Amino acid sequence: MINQALAGGIELNARLTQLEQGYDASRAELHLEAANLRRVVDTALRINHQSPLAPNYDFAQDTEAEVFEVPTLTAGWRDTLRGLDTRLNPGELRPITFDPDAADGRADLVYVHLGHPIVQKAQRLLRRSLWSVDSTLRRVSAVVVEDLEESFVAAVTRMVLVGRGGVRLHEEVFLVGVRLRGRRAMAEERAEEALDIALDGEKLVLADVRVRDQLANIWNVPDAPLRQSLETAMRDRAGRKQTQVTDQLHRREAADVQRAQEIFAAFRTNLRDSLTSLRAQEAEAQGQLFTDPDQERQQRRDREAMQRRLDELDDEEAREISAIKDRYADVKPHTTAAAVVFALTRSDADGWRD
After folding, report:
1. Helix/strand/coil for 269
2. Tens of pLDDT along 223-248?
3. CA gap 123, 120 in Å, rounded
4. How far apart are CA 211 and CA 222, in angstroms?
């Protein structure tokens, strides 16, 4: 027994370590670093005409993470502030941080994570602003990235996989880049690495206005090779992404079919048990001297209705399963560029400027 308990403890610890490593990898893959979450909130506050987060330096001696005070916000943000105060100090908002380690075990500091109401509202505002014609959010930028090996243009690409009937099955946002001085798509791993550096950097410098004008001219000419190259790369990457999630969609389809079959099986069992119970009650009532005619008629109607429902159940189950399979049939990708960024090396930016 002791050996089994020790083995179970070792296995559990190994599993927890694996989950922790997977969690950190997923955070990095999804760009959920503290600085990125802060930028999302800062940008949403700015485009919604709110006061910015104010740095709180009182925590500097306790943590190296950035800590902020939440400003006075308008009524539309009121629900996002729930939980920032305490019962002992109602209405007094605690400072926030986007670093999970900084707030660990502390009651005087609130960790604002991806699912926090402030971040959730900020994401909704940014999504709407991406497609709004009157938004102040710029969807095209050119930045100079220090230590970048080569310049490239990158698209923040949104791919939606839609099944038959317009049902959205999968949505993913990813980065696609091509070399600025060539038409060949960058190697995937190298492109991802370069784009991560470009978009996650803390000190991105806006390119000179003369450089931006030249890039705009290159991009806007009819049948611009650079634009066509990036669009081709987007379609190719979307195709590869679709192939990668095909197995996942097949598993979801199988799980949905199995769930439907289990529901219908349970319903079928329930109807049969109910019919058996009603027939037993009718048989018992036939041996009695005094019976209620109204009750007998109601029992008969209930039994007939249940029997009809049971007889129809097989056809209904077949239709439901057919509808599920139709949702996963003829899957097509719909790919759009949510934003475009020109990431330039210092030498390229200086050359274009001069």
Report:
1. helix
2. 888 889 889 888 888 888 889 898 89
3. 5
4. 20
